[in-house]
Design brief:
globular; 6 strands; Nuclear Transport Factor 2, Chain: A; alpha+beta
Length: 162
Amino acid sequence: MKKIVSSLLILILIVACKQQNSSSAEEKTKIDELINEWHIDAAKGSLESYFNKMTEDAYFIGTDASEKWLASEFKIFCKPHFDDGSGWDFKPLKREIFLNDRQDFAWFDEQLDTWMGVCMSSGVLVKTKDGWKIKHYQLSIAVPNDLVQDFIELKNDNQNNN
């Protein structure tokens, strides 16, 4: 009898884990699609659609040290760039998405093909009543290690000239 109960418990655990993994995969697919659409919205200059994928209190950090915006401030910055029907075209090269156990909070990192070359970004998403939304996003320019010293010198020269 103990053997049957033990076997049933193991079977229940296996099924539960498979359901969790399936659910997790579905959520990751939704998040991946949302981030892809968000990048497409930027490329098309679709301001409202772009910002509808973010929480109202979202935070965006750009590549310049001065680029730290709340969503409302970032929207003002983006508007003139999006008004002509295009913003910036970032194409994902690879992305990893992670979920908490309750699957209501996620984070990701990605490499992007951009007009600046390869960039890296990371972000945080929350699951809302309207679905997944981007709450925090940070973009950075990827500087190859063998160019870091030259980059530092350029940056220092720029700061000294300002």
